[in-house]
Amino acid sequence: MKRFYKLLSSCLLLLSISACNNEESTSWETELLGPLAETRLSIEDIIADSLIISNPGDPLVIKYESTISLIPSDSILSIPDTTIENSYSLPLDFNLPSGFEVFDINQVIRFNYGELQLTHAILESGSLESEITSSLDDPILYGYSIPSALFSAVPFSLINQSLAAGSATNPRVEQRSFSLAGYSLDLRGPDLNSSNEIQLILDAQLDPSGDGSPVIANVPAIKFKNTFKDFRPYFAKGYLGRQIFDNSNESSDLGFMRNLEGNLNLDDATLDLELENSIGADFSFLVEQLKGVRTSTNTQVSLNHPMIGNIQHMGRALNVAQDGNPYTPVVRNFQFNASNSNLVQMLELLPDQLHYSVRAELNPLGNISSGNDFIYSSSNARAKVAVTMPLKFAANALVFQDTISTAGLENATDSPVQNADLKFFVENGFPFDLMTEFWLLDQNKALIDTILINQNIPAAPVDADLRVISPTKHILQAKITPARLNALEKTKYIVVRVRLNTQPENTLLPMYADYFVKVQLAGRGIYTVKLK
């Protein structure tokens, strides 16, 4: 209905446009009558189209859906950067001959994955950041490789690399970066019996064609620094550890309820809760609390249902592709309805937020898979909530309220409108009476004036099937006086309140897509007309 409210405020302003010229000019008074604007409104102007299910001939249904990730992003596969440093120095001054082998290292690097014991990973992103520093007078020939890092079955390897000569006072530094995205890592170590380990082979020697180089005692002649940075696996396998994820006092927004207040009696509603595990490890879930909260009044209703407060165990996903995903998730479904819960009473509170506390535990029984857990970058444990509410209700003093910002009117010395009537010709195709109020607020949202108080728009009559027969017609009228013009000049906000009462009273009435309110606006007034 926001379009209508903006239209109303525009029409109110239209009746009070100030003269644009203060110079003396020819003027006279004239009485005018004519239509100003027209609009037709349906239920979709009150509730967003995306929330409405509309089938021809059937009552309307609201469906709200939300997906909650119970595991924070990267919380399982959060792999910290790992830096390895190697240096060569001697305890005394010495002259190294040309071709001298400075490094011949076969090193095992262990990643700190905490409780995770990974044996295999395919990297979605990540890099090897290499820095070499040499204070030797001869060039350095070097190479290094990671035999267990494979891309298209070829190990990562750099051979016959060269670093130009440096000096003790001006060392030569070279920094390089190598992407490891797409590489497959065997993390079982050189003996294939461990986890979180890879092997790094590093060699370096003075150029055989050089003259040799002096080394200063206890001063590193050459340093290698290698950092494995920003590793994010697309896939990982091993034992994912026993971890607890506590989602306490989280909330999901039900914003479409925020503009409603008052008394609502619903016919029925359902809440479908789907728990999904797309990780190759066992999970347990505990929904400790699920409640609707009305933030404006700080009131709440907690849902009662047999699954709330009881641990739900879920098996692991299968490492088999399904529906475009590389895995097949495990899913469990629970339904809340009028027969097994107090869902209807919660929704009659008109909650604008859904609060929940959910506790998820990964591998609650420990390493029962013998290191065969798996996870993909898109894997998670999720809760999907779908609230379905047929638009069949009884409303008693149910209020729809909205606030519109307006630029107000520019101040003028003389108002062009001496007095005027603003008329609303209304066709009401809804089965409820409408009572309207318009509050004019200043820039501090203080009340200045009210318009159209307690003017009732009768409901459309319904047949034996509770279907509207034909719309009712009614005329509302507002006086535009000089005092109201002054109030309009100061108006920065217009609060619109529409009170609904279903007719017949206390009868659950279904809403249909073809229900409407049609409003035509016309004005009669005495205007001052000026010519230059």
Descriptive report:
It is built from three helices and 32 strands. With 532 residues, the protein is mostly beta strands. It starts with a helix and ends with a strand. Mean pLDDT is 84; it is low at 1-32, 409-413 and 526-532.
What labels would you give this structure?
mainly beta, Jelly Rolls, ten-stranded antiparallel beta sheet, 3 helices, elongated
**Shape estimate:** elongated
- SS strand fraction: over 45%
Which structural category fits the helices and strands? mainly beta
Low-confidence stretches: 1-32, 409-413, 526-532
Number of beta-strand segments: 32
Biggest sheet overview: 10 strands, antiparallel
The average pLDDT is 84
Number of domains: 3
Relative helix content = under 10%
Termini gap: 41 Å
Helical segment count = 3
Rg (CA only): 37 Å
Outline:
This protein has 532 residues and is mainly β.
List the helices and strands and how they pair.
Layout: H1 2-14, E1 26-42, E2 52-53, E3 61-69, E4 82-88, E5 94-96, E6 101-110, E7 117-134, E8 140-151, E9 154-163, E10 172-179, E11 184-186, E12 197-206, E13 213-215, E14 222-239, E15 243-253, E16 260-266, E17 270-277, E18 283-294, E19 299-302, E20 312-314, E21 330-336, H2 343-348, E22 353-362, E23 373-376, E24 381-390, E25 392-405, E26 417-428, E27 432-441, E28 447-457, E29 472-480, H3 482-490, E30 493-502, E31 509-510, E32 516-531
Antiparallel strand pairs: 1-32, 2-3, 3-24, 4-14, 5-13, 6-12, 7-10, 7-11, 7-14, 8-9, 8-11, 8-12, 14-23, 15-22, 16-25, 17-21, 17-24, 18-19, 18-20, 18-22, 25-30, 25-31, 26-29, 26-32, 27-28, 27-30
